Amino acid sequence: MREIEYRHALREAFDEELERDENVVIMGEEVAQYNGAYKVTQGLWEKWGDKRIVDTPISEAGFIGMGIGASMLGVRPVMELMFWSFHSVAFDQLVNNAANVRYMSGGKCNCPIVVRGPANGGTNVGATHSHTPEGLFSAFPGLKVVSPATPADAKGLMKSAIRDNDPVYFMESTLLYGMKGDVPDPADGDFVIPLGVADIKREGTDVTLVAHGQSVIKTLEAAEILQNEHGISAEVVDLRSIRPLDQDAIINSVKKTSRAVIVDESKPFCGVSAQLITLIQEYAFDYLDAPIKRVNSLDAPAIYSPAIEHEQLPSAKKIIDKVLSIMPAKA
Amino acid sequence: MDITTTSPDYSSYPINKNLSSEEKIDLYRLVCRMRRFEQGTQKPYSQGKMGGFLHLYIGQESVAAGTISLCGENDHVITAYRCHAHALACGMEMNECMAELFGKYSGCSKGKGGSMHFFAPDKNFWGGHGIVAGQTPLGLGLAYGVKYKGLKGCCICYLGDGAINQGAFHESLNIAELHNIPVIYVIENNGYSMGTSQNRSSAYKNCLAQRADAYDMQWDIVNGEDLYEVRAKTQIAIDRAHNECKPTILEITTYRYYGHSVADANHKKYRTPEEITKYKEDHDPVNLWKQRLIDEGILTEESAKQIDTEAKQEAAASVKFAEEAENPTVESIFDDVYWEVDNDTEAGNTGRHFFND
Question: What is the pTM of this model?
C-alpha cells in the first residue's frame, strides 16, 4: 500500500475516469490552467487539454446549469464549487433542475453529474465560506450526498460518483486535502467504493459514534482517548455517504453498544444528526440504554476569530464529554 | 408597438422559397392544432379537471411553429413553462400532452410534471421548465453537449421577456459567447412579464435583444406575426450555430391573448381590451398565415376551415382520451426519482434511498 494525499487521491480518481469514459469532463473555476484553487485538479489540464478540463467564469448558476443540460445529452460533467458554500448562487440549478428533471419528465431525462468541492469549517474564513450543506441537499429526493473522510474513501467514492447515473453532491474538506493515507495502487486494479456503504473505522462495544467527513478524524481521536484514558470501547461508524444511507450499519452498531453519539459538523437544527437520531429511535429504541446524544457545531453562523472558531466546531474533547455523560457511573 | 410596415419580403428567402405547398399547409395545420389544443383545455380546466397553473400560448403560435420547423436531427429545443405549443411543434401528440394536463399516468411525464413540464427527449424536446430563466443554463448545456460530441447542431432555448432580467440568463450569455456554444436564445417578447409591461420591467436601449452587444454576441429582432420572417431570421442564427459554433439572441415580438396564466385575473387591467382586440384583429399569426396561403393560392377558405375543424376534433378527442385515462398510482410516486433505483442496479439497491416511516 502507498500513502498519498486526499487531494491526490481525488485527482487520481478524475484521471482514471477521464481515461475510462470520454464523456467525463471536469469543469469549474480555476480547475484547468490555475490547477485548482486547492490543487485538487493539478496537472489534469496539461494532460487532458481544453476539451476535458474546462475553466469557467465565476458563474456558478451558469456553469452548473450548463453541466446539467449537457448531462441530459450524455456528457458526464464533474463540476467544482471552489467552496460548497457557493451553492447558494446556484441553488435553482442544484435543486430545481438537477434533483427534479428526471422526476418531472416522468423518467425521460437523467442527470449524471457530480458537483464537488470543500464543505467545512475550521479555516477562519467566516460564515459565508464555512457552510456544511450535507443535510440540506440530502433533504431533496433525487440527489445523492457523499462526504469522505480519508484519501482512500475519497478516491473510491469519487469513482463511484462519476459512474453513478444520478446527481451526486460530493463534499470534501480543505483541512483534509493535505492529509495522507493508504490508497491502493492503480496497478492493483480498479478501486471503487460503492455509495451507500458505511465503514466501521474502529470497532468497539460500549458506545457507537457516528460521523462523516472531517468529523470522522476527530471522532477517531476521541475514541482513542476514550479507550486509553477511560477504558471505554467506542465503535466509530463513518457514514461516507449520507444519501443513500447505510442505515443497517448504524442500527447494527447501536444494537451492539446500546449507546449512540452523533458527531456532525453541521448545525443541529434539521441536520444530518437529527435525521440519524430519528432513525435510531425508530429502529433501535428497545436496545438503547441512554438517550442519543450529538455533537454539532454551536448553533450560530461560523465565527471568524481564529482564537475561537475551533470552539464552535466538534472536537475530540466535546465528543469525549458527551460520551461520558451517557455512560453508567462507575461504581 | 406597431410592426406591420416596410419589412422586406421574407417569403423570397431561400429557406422559405424552398418550402413546398404541402409544408406550408403543414405549418398552418400546426398553428391550428396549437390553438385548438389550448382552447380545448379551457372547459376541463374551468371544471376543475386539471390542477395548478395553465399558461396559454394563444396568439404566439407562429414563433414556436416557425422556429422549430427549421430544426434538424441535432437541433434541440428547451423552453419555459408556456410549453404546449413547442411540444406539439416538436412532434408530441395531443393525447400525451392533454393527459399530462389531467395528471394522468399516460401523460408525457406520467402525471409528474403538469402543464409546465412536457418532455420528449426522443424528439429533442427537453421541457417545459417552471422557474423563470432556470432553463437558460440548461439550453446552454444542451448546446454544449452537441458541440462536445462533435455534432453539427444547436439548441434553441426560449424565454420570455421577463426572463431576461434573471442572473442565470446573463451568466449563460457570457459563457455562450466566451466558449463558442451553439445556443440560440429566443426571447418571445409578448410585452408583459406577468402583469408588468416591458417598460416597467426592463431597462434597455432600443430593444431587449440588444443586450447581446454587451457580450459581443450577434442578435436580431423579429416580427413574430410573420412566419416567413421568423423562419428567415432564425435560419441565419441556426447557420451561425452550425457553421461557426456561435450563439445568437433573437427577440421575436409577439402577443398573448390570455393572461400570464389562466389564473391571471388582472390581465384586462394591466392592458386595455382595445389592445387585445387590435392584436386579434390585425396581428393574429394563425389568420395572417392562412390569408397568406390563400393569397398564394395554396389554401382556400374551405380547405383552411377543414384543417381547423380537424384540429378542433383532435383536441376534443384528446380531452376524451385524457378524461378516460388512468391516474398514476401512489406507488408510482417513488418512480423516476433515482435512475439507479428505477433500473434496479447494484447502486440502486445499496443503502437507503427513501426515508418514509
Answer: 0.97
Q: Any chain B CB within 8 A of the CB of A270? A: no
Interchain CB contact of A141 with B (< 8 Å) = yes
**Would you call B138 and A68 a contact, using CB atoms and an 8 Å cutoff?**
yes
- CATH number, domain at B298? 3.40.50.970
Q: Reply yes or no on whether A310 is catalytic.
A: no
Q: Per the CB < 8 Å rule, is A105 touching B336?
A: yes
Structural domains of chain A sorted by starting position, each given as residue range(s) with its CATH number in brackets:
2-188 (3.40.50.970), 199-326 (3.40.50.920)
d(CA A47, CA B356): 46
Query: What is the domain extent for residue B19?
Result: 10-326
Residue whose C-alpha is closest to residue B269's, from B195, B329, B203: B195
Alpha-carbon distance of A75 to A73, in angstroms, equals: 6
B112 CA: distance to closest CA in chain A (Å): 5
Separation in Å, CA of A92 to nearest CA in chain B: 7
Separation in Å, CA A146 to CA A135, A142, A314, B197: 11, 14, 19, 46
State whether residue A30 is helix, strand or coil.
coil
Contact by Cβ (8 Å): A98, A61? no
ipTM exceeding cut-off 0.85 for this assembly: yes
B280 lies in a domain? yes
For residue B268, what pLDDT band results from cuts at 50, 70 and 90? Answer: confident
Size of interface A-B (CB pairs under 8 A): 194
Taking CA atoms, A199 is separated from A207, A220, A253, in Å, by: 16, 13, 11
What's the pLDDT at B357?
83
Choosing from A8, A12, A80, A129, which is the catalytic residue?
A: A129
Radius of gyration of chain A from its Cα atoms, rounded to whole angstroms: 20
What pLDDT sits at residue B4? 52
Q: Give CA A208 to chain center in angstroms.
A: 19
> Which residues of chain A from 91 to 120 reach within 8 Å of chain B, CB to CB?
92-93, 96-97, 101-110, 112
Contact A245 B142 (CB under 8 A): no
A212 noted as active-site residue? no
C-alpha cell at B79: 423552453
B138 within domain boundaries: yes
User: Cβ of A281 under 8 Å from any chain B Cβ?
Assistant: no
Domain contains B140: yes
CA–CA separation, A59 and B168 (whole Å): 8
CA-nearest residue to B144 within chain A is A70
The model's pLDDT over A237-292, given as tens digits with 9 standing for 90+, comes to 999 999 999 999 999 999 999 999 999 999 999 999 999 999 999 999 999 999 99
Is any Cβ of chain B less than 8 angstroms from the Cβ of A195?
A: yes
Contact call for A196 and B339, based on CB within 8 A: no
Q: Is residue B5 part of a domain?
A: no
Contact criterion met (CB < 8 Å) for A103 and B336: yes
Q: How many CB atoms lie within 10 A of CB A233?
A: 15
Q: Who's near B224: CB < 8 A, 6+ residues apart?
A: B60, B62, B63, B66, B188, B189, B230, B252, B253, B254, B285
Task: Name the pLDDT band for B6 (thresholds 50, 70, 90).
Answer: low
CB A325 within 8 A of CB A293: yes
Q: Indicate the number of domains in chain B.
A: 1
